[in-house]
Design a protein that fits this description.
Layout lengths: L1 H8 L16 H134 L2 H20 L1
């Protein structure tokens, strides 16, 4: 440790001006060399270093400006996208409302159509039932009439003799004559 402090103290001692020699003290010579190199670098490198720093500063500022422009563009695109989204949402709501009302309208139309169809079918059914009832009634009437006629003919044949038969025919012909005159 004493050698290190001695080397710093010996810096104050300079050999007389007339002699030239090698300094064997490594620390003293390194400090001198380092200070000379730093002095030369500062003197000559000052312009280069300031140019490098200015260029770097300009690139950073340019990057910041570009970033700001990109950010503003992104914000503008975001606002446009939000506006389009709002417009599309309004359209979707309108379509949804129109769709629901259209569905309700179609449902009511379908219900009304089915109701009318059912009513027509009910009317056709009732008409068919009425027609079948009338046909059945007519068939029953015809059978009753035929049976009554057959019964009456049977009774007449058993009760009528030739003289009564001729008198009945004469009476009927007389009635037809009166009806013809009227």
């Amino acid at each position: 440790m004493k050698n290190v402090t001695d080397s710093f103290l010996s810096l104050g001692y300079w050999p007389p001006a007339g002699s030239f020699g090698f300094n064997t003290d490594i620390l003293a010579t390194n400090l001198i060399n380092l200070s000379v190199v730093l002095g030369v670098l500062i003197f000559f490198g000052k312009g280069v270093l300031s140019d490098l720093l200015d260029n770097r500063k300009q690139r950073i500022l340019k990057t910041i400006r570009n970033s700001e422009e990109l950010r503003e563009g992104a914000i503008e695109q975001l606002e446009k996208a939000r506006a389009r989204l709002r417009k599309v949402e309004m359209e979707a709501d309108r379509f949804r409302v129109n769709g629901y009302s259209e569905i309700e309208r179609e449902k009511l139309n379908l219900i009304n159509s089915i109701s009318k169809t059912l009513e027509q079918l009910e009317n056709y059914k009732n008409e068919s039932i009425h027609f079948e009832q009338q046909r059945a009634i007519n068939q029953v009437r015809q059978r009753v009439f035929q049976q009554a006629l057959q019964g009456a003919l049977g009774t007449l044949k058993s009760c009528l003799n030739d003289e009564l038969h001729l008198r009945t025919i004469s009476a009927n012909i007389g009635m037809f004559g009166v009806i013809k005159e009227i």
